[in-house]
Amino acid sequence: MNGSRWACWLALPMLVAVWGVAALVIDTPLLPSPAAVLQTFWLAVQSGELPHHLLVTLRRVLISFILAMALGAALGVWMGRSRMANAVLDPLLVLFLNLPALVTIILLYVWFGLVEAAAVLAVVVNKVPNVAVTLREGARSLDPKLEQMARVYGFSRQQRVVDVWLPQLFPYLMAATRGGLALIWKIVLVVELLGRSDGIGFQLHMAFQIFDVASILAYSLAFIAVVQVIELVVLQPLERRASGWRNAGVQHA
Amino acid sequence: MLELRVDGAAVAHPVLGAIEVRVRAGDRICLLGPSGVGKTTLLNAIAGLDPRLNPSPGADSLPRVGYLFQEHRLLPWRTVRQNLAMVGANPTEIERLLNAVGLLDAADRLPDQLSLGMARRAALARSLAIEPDLLLLDEPFASLDPDRAAELRELIARLLDEQPQMAMICVTHDARDADQLANRLWYLAGRPATLRWDRSLSAGASASLISEELRLLGV
User: Fold this and answer.
1) What is the pLDDT of residues B12-71, one digit of tens each?
2) Distance from CA of B77 to the nearest CA of A (A)
3) Is residue A112 part of a domain?
């Protein structure tokens, strides 16, 4: 078991080493060395460019994420609880699940112009169906015995949602959040690339036009690092806190 | 007097037939009957939980019902104390009830940290916390060892003594429970199930004797 703690530190350094050697051997600007990428990254940080575009992208991710989770969760729970709502909305859900993200983005830009609202809306439209499907599953698995209990004891609507449903839906919300963030920032980059004049996606677009691979890698790595930090600092502690009651019985035994 | 008509026949209910239920304040009813006959279904109907059967109240409004389900059905992510607060009991009342069922020390534990008997007592405290007119108990002694079952029987008998106005319906397999808790006996049988027997218990007509009688009659 002790060995596996260190094993996760093997693959990444090896990748960097292989990359470094390959860059040295091939010696072309199309494959800059790790050191060159690091230097580009540092220059972009110092000039303030990278933090600016990173913040712009993160703001878009955050806004679309909140909207998509709220709408998707409400829709999913409704469809999971009401057979009628599910029958009516399910074909739409299937349609939107299979609609390529690129199509939504292009159409919304064509219809609404290259504006911020169209960009955010495109991301939301792409994400809502995934959240809805996950939360529909969660709503279907709500314990009917606790529902009966809540009815007998006259729980208010708010008590039912906050105290009975939410703890049961929490694993599904977490799953939707995990998958949600991963999907949303990929779509946000495409949205920025196609129709915004700031953000990481826009910067990648600019770098692509002059084949500036060092910038492409520097921006990508910065972005991946931020995503990992959010996972470690926000999501994992949240999950540990909210599912603490699950382990209570084990400790008792 | 609490009158409820549960007419399963009218809605082609798969389990229950036409049943008229009259419960007076202070009635202590034990509901007996073969396994799977629909005793829990009848309790659910009385509690207003069967969407096909709306219990129609007689003269009064619907009674306030405390229900001890077969499983504890406490919210597993809330402590015992929070579970009682959830149904509207104030802190003083919670202390009093937890003391009465002997769970003061376990007040801040989660339901999964309780033994089966403790969880059932916590659920019993919750069913009393809403100050019910009618207390429904669904096999409260099932899967407890004999000592724990006897303790719980005594506890319930004591709590009932403190609330002479409260009515109770207790589903059980064991007529001896009725000897200790009940002053009235219902026997549910048949398919669709109807109340075959509704008799007040008095000296000389103990539940054990009556159920033996029923068994011999083959009802």
Assistant:
1) 888 888 888 888 888 999 998 888 888 999 999 888 888 777 666 555 567 789 999 999
2) 6
3) yes
Is A32 a member of any domain? no
Q: How does DSSP classify residue A248?
A: H
- How confident is residue A156, by pLDDT bands cut at 50, 70 and 90? very high
Which of B47, B88, B113 has its CB closest to that of A249? B113
Domain count for chain A: 1
* For testing contact with chain A, the best of B73, B83, B169 (most A CBs within 10 A): B73
Using the Cβ of B116 and the Cβ atoms of chain A, whether some distance falls under 8 Å is answered with no
pLDDT tens sequence across A178-231 = 888 888 988 999 999 998 889 999 999 999 999 999 999 999 989 888 888 988
Residues A249, B112: C-beta atoms closer than 8 Å:
yes
Residue among A152, A159, A164 minimizing CB distance to B49: A152
Question: What is the per-residue DSSP string for A150-169?
Answer: HHHTT--HHHIIIIIIHHHH
β pairing state of B28-32 and B167-171: parallel
- Model pLDDT for residues A20-56, shown as the tens digit of each residue: 999 999 988 889 999 999 999 999 999 999 999 999 9
Q: Which domain holds residue A126?
A: 49-241
Residue pLDDT, tens place only, A81-119: 999 999 999 999 999 999 999 999 999 999 999 999 999
Give a yes or no: residue A128 inside a domain. Answer: yes
Q: Provide the 3-class DSSP secondary structure of residue B21.
A: strand
What pLDDT does residue A3 have?
Answer: 63
Residue A145 domain-assigned?
yes
Give the list of residues 6+ apart from residue B131 with CB closer than 8 angstroms, or none: B64
How many residues appear in chain A?
Answer: 253
User: Going by C-beta distance under 8 Å and a sequence separation of 6 or more, which residues neighbour residue A46?
Assistant: none
Q: What's the CATH number where A143 sits? A: 1.10.3720.10
Q: Which residue of B has its CA nearest to A242?
A: B77
Q: Which domains does chain B have, with CATH numbers?
A: 2-217 (3.40.50.300)
- A204-216 b/e (C-beta count within 10 Å ≥ 16 → b): bbebeeeebbbbb
Q: Which residue does chain A place closest to B47, by CA atoms? A: A152
How close is the nearest chain B Cα to the Cα of A147, in Å?
10
| 3-state SS, residue A112 | helix
ipTM, two decimals = 0.86
Minimum distance, in Å, between the CA of residue A244 and any CA atom of chain B: 9
pLDDT for residue B56? 61
Residue B87 contacts A, CB cutoff 8 Å: yes
DSSP single-letter state for residue A99: S
